[in-house]
Amino acid sequence: MDSRADSLERLGAFLARVHDLTTVDSANELAELDLSFSQARILALLASTGSQLPIHVIADRMNLTLPSAGRNVDRLVRLGLAERDECTQDRRVKLVQLSARGRELADRRMDHCQRVLEALLDPLSDADHDRLLDALAPLTSDLPARGTACGPKGTS
Q1: Which pLDDT belongs to residue 143?
Q2: Which one of 35, 70, 72, 145 has the fewest CB atoms closer than 10 angstroms to its CB?
Q3: Where is 53: in which H helix or E strand?
Q4: Contact 97, 82 (CB under 8 A)
Q5: What is the mean pLDDT of residues 58-86?
């Protein structure tokens, strides 16, 4: 196997491990809330933006119809995970953001993800850690800055 194929295989295995370790608890918590996949995706979108989004933008980004996005948002509002307000410039536009409870859910997920990554990287020596950062630099230089390794902190 050539070095590029080996790198892809190893990186894929590592990312799969990170994914598995970071999603099980989140998936269990979302299942306990009886959220649909679309509702969970909307929560993740709202957490990642950290600001109010119009329902039509949510529909576009989630590839949902406007009525479907509206029904999913309605459910999140009923569960206390999101809040909906009228836009002050255009009352026809409904703006959605995470509620305090939704933000707590997102923060727990981010904290869990951070702990998993810290545990995975803890065995690295300082030199290995520096080499990892150097290797990741060209792959991450165009990514937006984030508060934690898994997503925005404090704005989620």
Answers
A1: 72
A2: 145
A3: strand 53-54
A4: yes
A5: 96
pLDDT tens by residue, 74-98:
999 999 999 999 888 888 889 999 9
Class of domain 19-140: mainly alpha
Say if residues 102 and 45 touch (Cβ distance below 8 Å): no
Do 123 and 112 meet the contact criterion of CB atoms below 8 Å apart? no
51 Cβ neighbours under 8 A, 6+ residues apart:
97, 155
DSSP per-residue letters across 73-123 = HHHHHHTTSEEEEE-SS-TTPEEEEE-HHHHHHHHHHHHHHHHHHHHHHTT
Residue 10's identity, in one-letter code, is: R
For the question of whether the overall pTM of this predicted structure is more than 0.90, the answer is no
